[in-house]
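The protein record filed here:
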Amino acid sequence: MSGNSFVNSLPLYNKHFEHSITILFDFQSCLFKFVHRLNREVITVIKELFSLLAVFIALFLFGMVVMKAGLFQLGQASFQKILYRLTNSAWKGMIVGAIATAILQSSSAIIIMTVGLVATGLLTFRHSIGIILGANIGTTMTTELLALDLSMFIVPLLLIGLLSLLLPSTRAYSIGCLSFGLACIFIAMDGLETLAYPLASIPSIHSFFDLTNEHELLGIGIGTVLTAIIQSSTATTAIAMGFMSDNVLTLQAGIAIMLGANIGTCVTAYLASIGSGRSAKLVAYANIWLNVFGVLIFIPLIGWLSSFASSLTSSPMMQLAHASLIFNVLCSIIMLPLVTYFAKFVEWLHVKEV
């Protein structure tokens, strides 16, 4: 190409260059708009998912409160009498605590009753330790129930609950609370299972779950903090079950969260003991140390517990429920012969604080 031809073709090259630049800027502008729109859509979806998660957790807790209200109407006074009369030894206290908690569906409620009985002098601190051990076993019955697929009973339970609540009888009201509360719990469980996969598909949350699956101590910390906030170890375990059902969390991570939930649930009893006498505060401290020691013993055994629970059933939710039952039963059996020494340890450790 001659010099004159090159010079003459420059305007054409410039025109093509300008046109390419214009197309590039238009493409970049469209890309920015698309990304911005996509980011807004993603943020909206994330907000909706977390809003639904909060709704289902609230519904679960509401169901627990309503169910407990019905059960308390039926048996709170009688249980207080039973706790007072049949707890003159640690093993009797453990049996009574386990049965009472399985029926009332709340270990915190039984421990708070125990704090009250000790505060009024109707029960000694050392006899209360057996009740705490039993309450830890009894609360696993709720977890076993949640692991069952009872979604087919949601509509009948709702109908029975609503109809019973309309009746003037106190017993009918209690049955209505129990039925309606159970229905709410099962609805919440279905919702948590449904949300597990969409939440886990968000990259940052998926990375967080990966960390939880890899680091058991992180799982224990999550279980402790979450339970301390929502005041329900059962709800925390139920959330873990929902994520396990979609294979988002491994069984070992679920067990770690369950262990942490056992520590977090001690907050309720500790708050109940504030302002009480020396013995009542010792009950709260004993509850904390029993769960902390149990978790410390089982941290190295999480792998074994996971393998053993997996051999019992193929359902991830049932595996976690069985692991919770095994953990609490073994801890209680180990501690039962050592109740006297444990009581002395708690009294020695907290002598100045109480």
